[in-house]
């Protein structure tokens, strides 16, 4: 363990890699300040491979101010500085001897930009080719809720490793290496890594993965064990019950509007406003454009018609609909619509909070594995399963990813990778 983390000589860097970060995240951030070439090494040969970094001035200043040690306190020779990126909340309390240099969570407005920069750093190592490890390190960083910088002695590393596992954390050291909780290198500054290194996942997520695999196998569907778990209960950033109820109303409205167009019996927006007034506060930009289009695109009409399935699973998640049909069944559109119209007679339908987290996450984990099977079939790499409807799975995946805050994306921007 002790040999995995190197003795630190410099403070944590707030990486924002110009170009790579922007291409990876699609976010344009100004004020990049080019600095001379610097090495991420600490005298172990890495200095021979310098990389040019571009720092954002205000991010760098912020990191120096919150992660700097107080003046006059020099670390012991064997002290190690580590930066921890944990996905669970609340963060477990460290029980090992250490000096806290800085700690922040998602309430810090600069953490999101820092994580984007760190993702850019990760994607730029070595030849920049996307690998299984690189991809899942990126996904981990997208789920980070706590960033902690601390100093500890090498004697405390075993206890630190146990704590990092509990925090579901990856670790960045001063050699520019991204490590697993045990200190094994996932990606070093040159893009290489230890094949034995493992991305951490919460115990409940691993157990859920096993249950999903068993249920699919009972239906005659085998999925590879290499498909990772989804998020755990303590990683989720749930939408509020009111947000979900509002999204349900908006989806119901656009689904009904699309159905009317498909059946050559279009609804007037005035009729929708009369029956579902609360929906108009929750339409996404794409939904507003669809409702206001003089001649909606046929593809969009079809897509919006499938939104009944998103409506159904979100209504189920919010406790507004009692049962979730199997993935081989279309939802009861008539029953669902009538129930939601009755429940929303005076505004948003009343909810008593979301269903238990484990029920929703079970549905998401199984849905993602079904979606993987469907995509493999679409690529011609396996037969289409006879007991699932692709459109149902796609809508459920989109809706549930939105519900759990996947990539912190708004409805129109939700992605469904498998």
Notes on the structure:
With 418 residues, this protein is an alpha+beta fold. Helix content is 41%, strand content 9%. The chain has a six-stranded antiparallel β-sheet with strand order 4-5-3-6-7-8, with helices on both faces. A two-stranded antiparallel sheet has the order 1-2. The longest helix has 22 residues. The N terminus is likely disordered.
Determine the strand fraction and express it as a percent band: 5-15%
The helicity comes to 40-55%
Q: Let me know the largest β-sheet.
A: 6 strands, antiparallel
Number of E strands: 8
What is the mean predicted local confidence, pLDDT? 84
- The computed structural class is alpha+beta
- What is the terminal separation in angstroms? 33 Å
Please give the radius of gyration in angstroms: 24 Å
The largest beta-sheet arranges its strands as: 4-5-3-6-7-8
Unreliable spans:
2-75
- How many helices? 14
- Name the helix and strand elements from N-terminus to C-terminus, one letter apiece: HEEHEEHHEHEEEHHHHHHHHH
User: Any idea what the shape is?
Assistant: elongated
Question: How are the elements arranged and paired?
Answer:
Blueprint: H1 20-25, E1 32-34, E2 54-56, H2 57-67, E3 79-86, E4 99-105, H3 111-124, H4 132-143, E5 146-153, H5 157-166, E6 169-173, E7 178-179, E8 185-187, H6 203-218, H7 241-262, H8 269-275, H9 285-292, H10 298-305, H11 307-317, H12 333-343, H13 357-378, H14 390-403
Antiparallel strand pairs: 1-2, 3-5, 3-6, 4-5, 6-7, 7-8
Helix pairs in contact: 3-4, 6-13, 7-10, 7-11, 11-14, 13-14
